[in-house]
Amino acid sequence: MNVVDLIKSYGSKTVVKEVSFTVPKGKVLSLIGPNGAGKSTVMGMISRLIARDAGVIDFEGQDLTKWKSKELAKHLAILTQHNNVQMKLTVRELVAFGRFPYSGSRLTPEDNEMVDKAIAYMELQEYQDQYIDELSGGQRQRAYIAMVIAQDTEYVLLDEPTNNLDIYHATNLMRIARRLCDELGKTVILVLHEINYAAFYSDYICAFKNGRIAKFGPVEEVITKETLSEIYKVDFEIMNIGGKPLTIYY
Amino acid sequence: MIKQICRKSWFSTFILAILLILLSCVSLFVGVMDIDIPTLLSGREGMELKIFILGRIPRLLAILCTGVGMSVAGLIMQQLCMNKFVSPTTGATIQSAQLGIVLSMVFLPTMGLGMRTIFAFIFAIIGTLLFVFFVQRIQVKDTVLVPLVGIMFGNIIGGVTNFLAYQAEVTQQLSTYFSGSFALILKGNYELVYLVAPLVILAFIYANHFNIVGMGQDFSRNLGVNYNVILILGLSISAVITASVIVIVGQISYIGLIVPNLVTLFKGDKIRGTLIDTALFGALFVLLCDMIARSVIKPYEIPMELVVGIIGSIIFIIMLFYKLKHGKKAIRWGGHHRKHLHGAHHGRHHHHRRNKEVGICE
């Protein structure tokens, strides 16, 4: 995926200004930055949820807007926080929706197999007949990810997936994101607020500030005292734990 | 436990179907004139056979179509709007259809039933879409506020309808379209309600699409489903079903609200899994109400809308109390679980607020 000169304005306020980057395939990429830096808007545009004002998003040799919606759904999946959680659907029914781009309403035996696998991968077997509105936040998040796995796309985009989760569930979720990349070979793009999760679990980081990319590169290049202090306007200390740069801010 | 059995198997569908068939047979023999099977079969009494074929069977079929149609229309609307309190009654569909009927009476009085129906269809669709897009535009977050807006909107349209009817002196004629009743159903004047059947089948085909749209705009787009097209399709199906019932039978409220809610309680929100049960239960409900309406002051009958209104409002109140109690239970039994949910909601609100401050999305 190649992004060139992306621009987005709301009213007179330009929230994304000429953003260009290339998504490294088969890696975990995290978008970080302070509130209002434009990272979620960029995520929205590269996942076709938000229309862009200008720029090019080249996805697998074709502009994102040229893709047929159903065809694109087989290659790129996006999970946002704005889903209707009041719905009385069972976990299995939800995961089965992941097969919708392939088979519509008629699930083939292969589809059901994919659904089984996705449920097993997320260790949701014992919950599969429970309604999603009866699950805890962490379980429900796993159910949505199982749906994305069933969707079987090369790209998985997760918009602030750790929001509203406690440390245990959030960490679990980050491990899952890592496994999606390492075990299933997917390209994972995340929007994260928690810098340390980004530092520990990603391969690349794209740091935003004021609608522009402040720094893009491998984790070690972005997670530095200077860069982060500049972006967030707070003091940072970088420590090396387990070969990964982790931050302390105050 | 019972819930699990009901949801998993076809058991509930089977029971409902059997009950409906039994009650349908019974209803054929309820009426002013006593008709029994031996006389019917002997073929001697021409009068009785005529009543049977011209009156009773059409009436039964109209009842079944009404019950199926109104409950399915309600189910679709509830799912698409992500709100359990939205229905043809609380979504301005019924009132819009009535406005269409009055307009056709006033401006094209000679055109008859066909034109009236087309007007009812068009206005029901426009009214429902207006309501839904209005609610989406102003982003009403409160679940109870949405139907209240719908009721207000419906009342405004109803006011215009009444005014027009009064001016054109068609109030008398209009009363048929306001209180639903099966008393005037005869062979030859009711066949339009058959339209319900293909529409319900269409709804079944698109059931999963409606479910996905009900999960939200982002969710739909992720799965390659065109949110607006499916939303308009679903609402139009509901509106046309409702309008065709109103043109023939008159206003039947509450069914679209109560029946889907009751069935969902046991069978969940997956439309493919609930649609048949909802349709059967709706038919059963209307059939029962009609039999009561016919039996209370025999040999006369009261408008069936009255019976539906009384029974419907009682069930609705029970349902509200059940939901309240159910919610409390969940808090007490699974404190941790519940707290988590609460936290999640809180966080989300916060998120929304932040987004708004910054300008929609970051």
Largest sheet of chain A: 6 strands, mixed
Strand content of chain B: under 5%
Poorly predicted parts of chain A: none
- Overall geometry of chain A: globular
- The largest sheet of chain A has its strands arranged as 6-7-8-3-9-10
Identify the CATH homologous superfamily of chain B. ABC transporter involved in vitamin B12 uptake, BtuC
DSSP helical segment count of chain A: 10
| Sheet with most strands of chain B | none
Concise description?
By secondary structure, chain A is of the alpha/beta class. Chain A has ten helices and twelve strands.
Keywords:
heterodimer, A: about 250 residues, alpha/beta, 6-stranded mixed β-sheet, 4-stranded antiparallel β-sheet, 10 helices, about 35% helix, globular, B: about 350 residues, mainly alpha, ABC transporter involved in vitamin B12 uptake, BtuC, 16 helices, about 0% strand, disordered C terminus
Describe it for me?
The complex is a heterodimer of chains A (250) and B (362). Chain A starts with a strand and ends with a strand. Helices cover 34% and strands 28% of the residues of chain A. In chain A, the strands form 3 sheets. In chain A, strands 6-7-8-3-9-10 form a 6-stranded mixed beta sheet, with helices on both faces. Chain A is built from 10 helices and 12 strands. By secondary structure, chain A is of the alpha/beta class. With 362 residues, chain B is mostly helical. Chain B has a single domain, classed as ABC transporter involved in vitamin B12 uptake, BtuC (Orthogonal Bundle), CATH 1.10.3470.10. Chain B contains 16 helices and no strands. Chains A and B meet through α1, α2, β6 and α6 of A and α10, α11 and α16 of B.
Helices and strands, with pairings:
The complex is a heterodimer of chains A (250) and B (362).
Chain A lengths: L1 E9 L2 E10 L5 E5 L6 H8 L7 E6 L2 E2 L5 H4 L3 E4 L11 H7 L2 H4 L5 H13 L15 H15 L3 E5 L7 H16 L4 E5 L3 H7 L2 E6 L2 E7 H4 L2 H8 L3 E6 L2 E6 L1
Parallel strand pairs in A: 3-8, 3-9, 6-7, 7-8
Antiparallel strand pairs in A: 1-2, 1-4, 4-5, 9-10, 11-12
Chain B lengths: L1 H7 L2 H18 L8 H6 L3 H36 L11 H15 L4 H26 L7 H23 L3 H8 L17 H10 L1 H8 L2 H6 L4 H22 L6 H13 L3 H25 L8 H30 L1 H24 L4
Helix pairs in contact in B: 2-14, 4-9, 4-10, 4-12, 4-13, 4-14, 5-6, 5-7, 5-12, 6-12, 9-12, 13-14, 13-15, 14-15, 15-16
